[in-house]
Amino acid sequence: MNKNIRAAFYFTMDFQKRVLIPIANHFKERIITNDLNELKNFRPDFVFTADYSCKTLSEFFRNENVFIMAVRHGAVNKYSEPEDDFSYADFIFGTEYEKKYLESGNVKPRMKFIVTGNPWVDETFRIPNRLLDQNTPTILFAPTYNPEISAAAIPGNKLYELISKVFSDFNLIIKPHPAILDRRFEHLRKYEKTFDEWIAYWKYLEDNFKNVRFIDNPSESISKYFTDADILISDRSSLIWEFIILERPVLLYRSNNQPELWNQLITDLSIDNKLDVGAGYEDINQFADSLGKIFDLHENYYQKNQQNYKNELFGKFQDGLSSFRIAHEIKKIYEEELSNNIIEVAESYIQNNSFEQANKLLNKALQFDKFKTEALNDLAYIEIVSDNFNKALTHITEALTLNPNDEIAWNNLNYLLENDLIDSEKIHQKLNTIFQVPLSIKKIFSFEDYLEYYKSMRVEYRRRNEFEKKLIPDKLDEFIYNGFCIVCNEVVQLKVDFWNAYKNNGERIPNWRERLVCPNCNLNNRMRLTYHIIKELFPDFRSSAVYITEQTTALFNLLKKLNRNLIGSEYLGESVSKGASNNYGIRNEDFTELSFNDGQFDLLVSLEVLEHIPDYQKALNESYRVLNKKGKFLFTVPFNKNSKSNIIRAKIDNGGNLIHLLPPEYHGNPLNSRNECLCYYHFGWKILDDLRNVGYENVFAVFTYSKEYGYLGGEQIFFIAEKGN
Ligand SMILES: [Zn+2]
Hints:
Rossmann fold, Serine Threonine Protein Phosphatase 5, Tetratricopeptide repeat, binds zinc ion, CDP-glycerol glycerophosphotransferase activity, TPR repeat, transferase, SAM-dependent_MTases_sf
């Protein structure tokens, strides 16, 4: 690239300039602005942000050749879960620790995380080592804003008096968290009075004592006060993780209070809550006591911890030159012509039959996730027109492995098939290996377990959603999806139409769970998956004693073929006696009073039945009774994964009257389409406790989803209860 790179830097708060300016200085054509329109008029090649602005910027520059580049917000900011916003960046720069941290929440940039070190701490790493002044120390007081955990609250207005007890001579620099001083934050308005009291006290100190300085400009960076500090007094503020770089004494207010503003999903994922980098205090007596011994405690104990954290957090780059490295990496990206139009350039070479140049560019594009499928399809095309059909098939297979439903890859494949250019048996074998991946099954044992899992899946959920949305055609009323039917054992064109579809903001969303119908076996997504789960989790199904609470369904017929002794039933009411069959050979059973012997079955399967039984507890007891010692109960019910408790929609009162607590919901009855069944429950995680109370030993939910098998539309959830020995 010969022209100058047009480098844009976007900030939302002034203090972010601390990392933006040193990087910007490496570019001749540059702009640093907080104005989006100014940014657009500049026509940048990339925009760099040090804030949660990646989504905003990527939407603002949608369809334009602008890379979004980012470093994470703040020096060591890990109070919340890995920030989804950074998955909208094309490139992220930072430390190995930050990379792992983001990956723990499945947050990845579109193109690459480049390990450069963290530019927020560049200044601090450049502060020279010096001997500490133990007689007349400079104390940096830097409290955070949450009143529950802030060192501004404890010791409060005893601060000066207590320090004076320990040191006859000292300097005090007060540099509170910017949010205490900057009144633009709506959500902090309720603390205004508290903040005013704190500030009044600090002003009073500055006015009355020569050795006190109060820094009341929120935009000023704290790191410049690090140089003089011999001791830091703080709390759970993230700045302690920056100060430890200097390996100097730290005194911390250790409060276990949960700040009101932190939501419940925040757990101690990070090391932020561990305050073992400095001496602590919980009240004002301990404050003076710990401060008195601070230099000894630091040298003998806490300094070692600081060194360990420093290496864990900042890794190999501790030279204060991270912004230099970032600028260098950005230039490298552009020098290698890896701008957004690499594929376009390659395709123009293909059009001119300059395959060698095209090949070179496409292979470069393969190094970046974003371009992979496109590049593979183009490479396949080049091989096809060069009569290298086997090589073409390799590229097609790779593209389909990334996206089993990539349209261009399928076009290339069909071209090979229809023109007999390659052995079709070989193609089918290849396809089977792509699609027949192990079914991923996530077992979840409790609501808390689910919250953890949810956190790790947020970004993945969003990606799946986007993937599914893209499949839906604008005008057609039916479309196909290539998937592997586990029943037919081959890749088939699953059919999707809009039967029982949903509307979301006016857009049609297929009923994925009930559609994706195999053209051979006619089974839909839900039924194929149920079959798959049974096959996967109950390998002895064929030779086991199994009872299933349905007998007139396609799934029953399929399972009956596998296991000739399978027993099924329907609920026929009073017309047929329990355990007997009607004229059509349909057995009648009441789940709350089964006619089977104790311990008769190895496996009991019940799909979407329990929610129709007012006294479902009784049915659970029966399930336990008819299973043998190692027996297992597999079932599905309407389930609200975000609800801890079961949701009761309707009930029968003591007088036998039906009471609706929520608008009545009816589900189809396979025996009679006019006779619909009332749904009494939507279950929550309490169902697992219900099962444990009945006596089941091992109880869990199973979450599954698969693009390869066509199990789309959010995860389907099964429950499994095992009796144990
Ligand atoms: Zn099939």
